[in-house]
Amino acid sequence: MYKTYSVLGQKSIYDYNAAGKLTRIDTYLGDTTLYNTKLYKYNSKGYIAEKNSILAEGYFIPVSKLVEQEFYRYNDNGDKTQDSIVSQSKDHNNWITKYNNKGQLIEYYAYDKHNLLLGGAFCKYSENGDMVEVNAFDSGDSLYRELAYVYDNNNNVIQENRYLSDGLLDYELIFSYTYDDKKNWLTKTEVKYSLVKKFTERQITYY
């Protein structure tokens, strides 16, 4: 089974197996020039285990080449515990990301092409499950608080502080919201250096 989608001169063909799992995406520039292929593999329980991205022959390279791989691990309950990205490009880093049993990001690590650790971070959460702090470290294992968040009673971020490695505040973002009677936000204003940097308005229809 397959489906075809076209967007602004780019066409993608999606292949699925008998279980309805996505197994392949071929992306074309125009109708005939293959640009990229993504292949998906699943474990015995039906969870995605691996994704391979292949750059097609003739698109900047003389032969097709595997450019990126993603690997996924799960616990016995089917919760994702780790994913990793392995890049075959000399200019890109490799990543390992770990999750807790609630599916929340708790750790991530970046490595260079020689698999040397560049840095990473540890994430902390409140009892409500909101991420409240990100502690980063560099290749020298220096740990410092990089990000801190404050939330309102509707679990939306109202303040974000980013810090430098020496502990000094780099910048502060302030968010304000208006809500409907179901406590879903309708407008969101982002302020940085006392200036409005972004204003978002949305409409919600309930059925």
Element layout with pairings:
Layout: E1 2-7, E2 10-16, E3 22-29, E4 33-42, E5 48-55, E6 65-74, E7 80-87, E8 94-99, E9 105-111, E10 117-125, E11 131-138, E12 143-151, E13 157-163, E14 169-179, E15 185-192, E16 195-201
Characterization of this structure:
- Helices cover 0% and strands 62% of the residues.
- It is an all-beta fold and 207 residues long.
- It has two domains: 1-95, Lipocalin, CATH 2.40.128; 116-207, Beta Barrel (Lipocalin), CATH 2.40.128.
- The protein has a 16-stranded antiparallel sheet, with no helix packed on it.
- A hairpin with a 5-residue loop joins strand 10 (117-125) and strand 11 (131-138).
- The protein is globular and about 50 Å long.
- The mean pLDDT is 88.
- The helix count comes to 0
Structural class of the secondary structure composition?
A: mainly beta
Portion of residues within helices: under 10%
Which class of the largest domain in CATH terms? Mainly Beta
- The residue-averaged pLDDT reads 88
Please indicate the count of domains. 2
- The gross shape turns out to be globular
CATH topology of the largest domain: Lipocalin
Biggest sheet strand order reads 1-2-3-4-5-6-7-8-9-10-11-12-13-14-15-16
> What separation lies between the terminal Cα atoms?
33 Å
Are there runs of 5+ residues with pLDDT below 50, and where?
none
Helix-strand string? EEEEEEEEEEEEEEEE
CATH-scheme architecture of the largest domain: Beta Barrel
- Portion in beta strands: over 45%
Number of strands: 16
Integer-rounded radius of gyration: 22 Å
Major beta sheet, specifics? 16 strands, antiparallel
